[in-house]
TrEMBL record:
Gene (UniProt): nnrE
Name of the protein this chain belongs to: Bifunctional NAD(P)H-hydrate repair enzyme
NCBIfam families (alphabetical): yjeF_cterm, yjeF_nterm
Binding site for (6S)-NADPHX: 58-62, 147-153, 176, 274, 328, 373, 441
Species name: Streptomyces dengpaensis
Residue intervals of the YjeF N-terminal domain: 10-233
Length: 500
């Protein structure tokens, strides 16, 4: 399990550890890990050109000490100081003693404007050109502008440096996190550094795993500095071993009923394909049997003759261990209401989200898993799609609380949150290839199967997202794939997870 902790928790753990260690020991651990990651990225340290972007906090201190280590190995290292008089004194001293040099970067943005670009003719014109040339010629830029002490998007002088780094051909390594992102939420308010690699200390921060900030982080390397973190994380990402342990496996006594029967109320005359795709996901999710209820029975049987179909309403078919309702359901509100009345776990997706009565969901005693994409979540919350996409963690928690349900918010970093708070799961296997019509229907069926097998809504949602993401990668393999192909690749995803 990969976990991420809030800034507050990290600070508390740091205080506790610092009290037991000689002064500066923690920063040396961080700097050693950072320098090693930079050296790996550079390949050859000797003769390389490294520029450090240094803010006035300890994040800049990490960058300076790491820069000193690289300078001792023969790199040409220059620190661009945003606030020369407040730069970390010990780090600066170490860099200068190792042969590094210093430039001022504090007056690059035109005074009195919000324009982040370096404007010729401004107060620091000559200096701005020197810094721009340095960054333009660098092999590596190290972003030590701001770490977990940051608030909001970058200030104009820092944003000017971030823009230069983005324009340069240098690799960009962020120290702890890309400066300008919100560490606790993954939100990005204004300018932020775009890194190729982020070297983070002690634990992942939530923002490194959640969009949109995750994209700014590039790949992430965790450096152990000895922090002891408490039991419950803010965020967790399942990995192969966690998923393998949760997959339902048939035992000697299994029959189709014990393995779980999943009911699917989906599809319409207009959207029969949604029903077929939901069933295709369900059959690959391990359910002993799938009962289909709705007007697309002919299409379902044609594609999957093993499906049990019924033309009665959901309330009158035989027993099931879980329901999926909503994919392609059009305006069939009565099926949604009937399914919500069932005393088994229910997954509500697509049209079902719009048709589900909030009080009926809240009144349910069995688990409910809602699976909106950002647009559907926005409609339920009464906000814009952009508002949801910009604040995914808050949005998923708010929706879960409002409906008293577990919510899976789809996206490149799918989030799953329970109603009662607690740890939120983030899916690490997502891929842009999954943004294809019908892919959500496959996910519904798959997650529904796992609910029928007895997994909690949080586990069913996060295991399904994991397998679905992996299947999407296998199906696409560098070329576009349809939802049907994603469903067909789910068995490969299971095998891959079980192989470890
Ligand atoms: N506390 C510890 O024990 C350790 C901390 N470490 C490093 O220390 C960092 C935290 O250091 P600090 O608490 O000094 O804080 P930071 O260095 O993260 O940030 C504080 C500085 O950033 C400026 N700042 C804040 N928001 C800004 C914005 N939007 N634009 C531009 N500048 C902004 C502030 O004015 C302040 O000068 C961590 O992220 C990590 O890199 C590591 O050395 C490991 C050990
Ligand atoms: K940083």
């Amino acid at each position: 399990m990969r976990t991420a902790y809030s800034v507050e928790t990290v600070r508390a753990a740091e205080r506790e550890l610092m009290a037991r260690l000689p002064e500066g020991a923690l920063m040396q651990r961080a700097a050693a890990g950072l320098a090693a990651a930079c050296a790996d990225l550079l390949g050859r340290v000797y003769g390389s050109r490294v520029v450090l972007l240094v803010g006035s906090g300890d994040n800049g201190g990490d960058a300076l000490y790491a820069g000193a280590r690289l300078a001792r190995r023969g790199a040409g290292v220059t620190a661009v100081l945003l606030a020369p008089e407040r730069a970390h004194a010990g780090g600066l001293d170490a860099l200068l003693r190792a042969g590094g040099s210093v430039e001022s970067g504090g007056s690059l943005a035109p005074v009195g404007t919000d324009d982040a670009r370096v404007a010729p003719g401004g107060q620091g014109d000559g200096q701005a050109r020197i810094v721009a040339e340095l960054i333009g010629r660098a092999d590596l830029v190290v972003d030590g502008i701001v770490g977990i002490g940051g608030k909001g998007g970058l200030r104009p002088d820092a944003a000017a440096l971030a823009a230069l780094a983005a324009d340069s051909r240098a690799a960009v390594v962020a120290v702890d996190l890309p400066s300008g992102i919100e560490a606790d939420t993954g939100e990005v308010h204004g300018a932020a550094v775009r890194a190729d690699l982020t070297v983070t200390f002690g634990t992942h921060k939530p923002g490194l795993l959640i969009d949109p900030a995750r994209v700014y982080a590039g790949s992430v390397r965790l450096v152990d500095i000895g922090l002891a973190l408490p039991g419950e994380a803010e965020l967790e990402a399942l990995q192969h071993a966690d998923v393998a342990a949760l997959l339902p496996m048939p035992g000697a006594e299994s029959d189709k009923y014990r393995r779980g029967v999943l009911g699917i109320a989906a599809g319409s005359a207009r959207y029969p394909g949604a029903a077929v795709l939901a069933v295709s996901g369900a059959l690959r999710g391990g359910a002993g049997a799938v009962r289909y209820v709705g007007p697309a029975a002919d299409a379902v049987i044609a594609a999957f003759p093993e499906t049990l179909v019924s033309d009665r309403g959901p309330a009158r078919v035989g027993r099931v261990q879980a329901w999926v309702v909503g994919p392609g359901a059009g305006d069939d509100a009565s099926s949604v209401a009937e399914v919500l009345g069932a005393e088994v776990p229910v997954l509500v997706d697509a049209d079902g989200l719009r048709l589900a009565d909030r009080d009926a969901v809240r009144a349910r005693r069995a688990p409910t898993l809602m699976t909106p994409h950002a647009g559907e979540a926005a409609a339920l919350l009464g906000v814009s799609r952009q508002a949801v996409e910009g604040a995914r963690l808050d949005s998923v928690r708010e929706l879960a609380a409002a409906y008293g349900a577990t919510v899976l918010l789809k996206g490149a970093t799918t989030l799953v949150a329970d109603a009662g708070g607690g740890v939120v799961r983030v899916n690490p296997t997502g891929t842009a290839w999954l943004a294809t019509a019908g892919s959500g229907d496959v996910l519904s069926g798959l997650a529904g199967s796992l609910l029928a097998a007895g997994l909690s809504a949080l586990d069913a949602g996060s295991v399904a997202a994991y397998l679905h993401g992996l299947a999407g990668r296998f199906a696409a393999d560098g070329a576009p794939a349809g939802a049907h192909d994603v469903a067909a690749a789910i068995p490969d995803a299971w095998r891959d997870v079980r192989a470890g």
